[in-house]
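Standup notes
- DV: blocked on the single-chain target, sequence here:
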Amino acid sequence: MLARVGSFCAEEFKRWLPDPFVFAILLTIATAVTAMVWVKATPVEVVSAWYDGFWILLEFGMQMVLILVTGFAIALSPAVAHLIDKLATKLTRPGPVYLSVLIGGGVLVLVSWGWVVLTAVLGRELASRVRGLNYPFLVACAYLSSQAWVTGLSSSIPLLLNTPGNFLIEAGLLPGTIPVSETLGSPLNFAVMVVLLLVSPMIMWVIRPRNEVVELNELRSDGDTARRSTVAEEADTMRLREPGLSDRLNTSAVLQLVIVVMGMVYVVLHFVRNGFDINLNIMIFIFLMCGLLLHRTPIRYVVAMSRACSNISGIVFQYPFYAGIMGIMMATGLGKAIAMWMASIVSLKALPLAAYVLGGAVNFSIPSAGGEWAVLGPPLVEAIRELAGPLSAAELNRHVARVAMAVAYGESLTNLLQPFFLLIVLPVMGAGIRIQARDLMGYVFVPFVALFVVIGLLVTVVPL
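- DV (later): unblocked, structure below
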């Protein structure tokens, strides 16, 4: 029954879901119109906010490009290819491949959500070795696995709440930081983590397409399934007939090793000074150093990065459009107006569930957890203070922690309905083949519905 529902949803999404760029354009128009109607922003104010916001995510967009290409370059190394070959000898049927990507990917993103790139690489390489797969469904598995990040070490909102001098403290809304023990270390977060790591694979196992084989080679754009040269082989073709100083430098493992040692010294110093502080910048730096080490010579890494950069256009030109939507929400006051309206119609007990739904809805316009909390956080904290009356610092922290995690869970889950973060998975898993967001988004619709209901219940009843 559920398998038929999954196949039906997949076919319907192909008919109705446009390309991610068209999706961004439609959201831009819808947000602009809403701002003019709801908060009476003038067209000039909306257009100005849109333009100013266009550049908000430039740093974030570049980080996404680098996390993608440095992670992909690691996967192109001989050592990783060998490990994947060994894994492929153990996984010979589609079902275990799907589960490995779902569970393995979920565990990886608990460390850093940027590690979804490694899940995408694993899925792509396994698909080239295991027969009988439905490749669009496998891409959906990789994307679904990334949802567990919100309960892990790189979850943006809990880390922001634990940052000294954050904007809520500066605004006088919070007396101090909220430790991660009250957010990421809470019973609520562990319950949500278990659901995402165990229930998601169970649902995908039930709805997996059993008789619909769409293998990776069938989707290649040019129909050419011939073996591509390895990075080392391509690097060798770049040598001069008569080797000179340039070739000796290009192929110098010593030069590369010096840089790797310098980089790893800094990585050790970072963790000694800051504890287990994993952020996007240090993650990109680690990926970069690991890639240099695994490829051994400068010219091999140049070739690997050239291949890794071949399909990043979606991130480069689409992120600014979502940043523009975020600019409209923030500058016109639309985001705050929506949050205040929601808070005005619910009780303190129902506020976490309302924040969960609100976080999911606003995510379509602000697909960034930190950016969304910057818009929704202040009015929601003000609503808590108004609804609860005088509170001790500890009581206020508990209420804010629950509402903040509710926003985070809703924000993360509705990524399954919009293709923004799919732009991180598709450049790896969709490189050189005919596949679009609409080919796989339908497969995650059934898990989204089930997870949204279950996690909504957890947000309401499980104590922090």
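- Follow-up: Residues 186 and 383 are 23 Å apart (CA to CA).
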